[in-house]
Every structure is written in structure tokens, then in C-alpha cells.
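Researcher: Re-running this chain for the archive, since the previous output was lost when a drive failed. Same request as before.
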Amino acid sequence: MTGAGLAVREATVRFGPTEALSDLSVSVAPGEIVAVVGPSGCGKSTLLRCIAGLQPLDRGSVLWDGVDLAMVPTHRRDIGLMFQDHALFEHRSVRDNVGFGLKMRGRKAAERDRRIDELLELVGLGGFGNRAIPSLSGGEAQRVALARALAPSPRVLLLDEPLGSLDRARREHLVGEIRSVLREVGQTALHVTHDQDEAFAVADRIAVMRSGTIERIGTPERVWHDPGTAFVAEFLGHNVISTPEGPAAVPADAYRLVPTNGLEPGPPAVVFDVRFRGDHTVVTVDTAEGERVRLRTGEPTSLRPGDAVGVEIDPERVTPLGEDPNPA
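Model: Regenerated C-alpha cells:
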């Protein structure tokens, strides 16, 4: 996106013989939220460090509105940062934490007070200004961290596993709030997370990283329904099966278990594992074709490992996959 928002072009970072980033390119339009997911060690945090100016590039560029930021130090890039450990000043009040960046930029006290009050209300912490940081819950502390990152109105906000230290219930509650807040202020953001549910809930577009580069990027709906490669499909939890036309992705809920009454064509599958997950059950089976696949069913099941079972696939949900651009 030349001249419009954030653009990373052909970014390469080497640590000795290892390439942490390899010709990676990604853009974030003004007001857009892009989530970056991928396995541990794929380069997600390195990407954020390069954008923030904390890690130099060996090759490539980071631009804002078409202007190269290579010679711009971190404190002048107008970038907000929010991390998993929130890094709040525990000896300062909530109000002083939120206003810290504004004070460093020389904003007048009255202006700081208005902005602090506005943001505390926005993140659901109205009246918390005088609270001590150690008195806050984990979720409240993350709200303070978000308000502090947004206070100076950064042109782009970088979030590095911002909810990673919270339990699942708190993460699920806060992820919707984060998206609402970012939407409310029109904040451009790049959100790194290992939690796919979090990424799908917060992002306008999702980028799946692998070995220092982006293998797939698109809207959450498009990436889910058309993962493109076997790596992305498996990372998202889809099954990858063989078809006469080549490999294909099949979501776990695209299968249906049927009775083995001898009327189905071909031999049945054999149950390998059964896992109850509250509102659904995951059944792993070994098919007659020699493939192990995961099925998701919302129906109660009495299946046990070793049971024979028939399996049907919804043909409308079998998605052909392309060639792997980065084979192991």
C-alpha cells in the first residue's frame, strides 16, 4: 500500500545462519486490524520489533505512508506497543500510567486529564484513576495497558500476545472489548497472537506466518474456507486428505458419522481417540485409505477407541490445496 498506512517490504532479518524473517511483505491500511498467527519461532515477534525500530533489518524496508522509517528512531516512529506482561509502572497509579506517554510528549495537564478520563471510560475503567496497579486483576491491568498505549494516539499500535497471560475465560471476554475499542478510535493495529480464536475475533485480515514469511493472508472467512496450502490448513485445525485431484482441506465439522450397517461402500473407519470438549466432541479416526482425520460432532457419542464407524464428508466443503511454497 504505497502512501497509505504501514507497509513492510521484503523484510529479511538474520541471526547468524538463521533467517528470522525472509523476504516478508505485509501492509496495514489506516484503521485496519491485521492479526498475525503462526507456530512458535516463525518470526512473529521479530516482525513487530522491526516495525518498532527495535530490530534492524538486514534487507528490506518499513514504511509509513510511503516514507521509509529506517533512519527514524523508535521514540519518533509514533508507534504504540502493548505486550503480554503489560509492563505497567507498579509504583504509579492507573491515571499516571495512562498519562505517562502524554506527559513525555509535553501535553498540558488539563489536556492529559481529559484524555485519561476519556480512555478510562472507553476501556471500562471509569473511576479507576486513583487505583494502585497491584490492586488490579489481570484483565483490569490489560485494560490499563491498552489505554496507555492508545493515549498518545499512535499512528499504528503493535500488540504482542496482549492476552497471553490471562485464562481463557478472561481472554474471550477481553478480545471482543479490544476490537470494540480499536474500532471506536479507528486505530491501525498489528496484533500478534498464538490463539487462533483471538485472531479470528479481532482482525479484519489474518496473516499466517511460517519460517519467517507470510504463507497466507486474507479476511478471516477467506483464510478459513480457502487455506491455500497444507501447512495453513493443518495449522487452522483442518484435515488434509488425498483426492484424485491432489491434496484437499476438510474442516473437522464437515464429516458425519454414520452407522456401520454394511450398506456403505467400502470398509469402515476405526476410532483412534475420543475427546469430549463440552459443547462438542472430537473423534479421531483412521480411515480405510490410511489417513488419520479429526471429526467434530455436536451429538453425544458412545464411541470408544477401536470401534468401527462409517464416515461421510460434505463434498461442498472439500477445498483443493495448492503446492507447498516452503516444503520441509
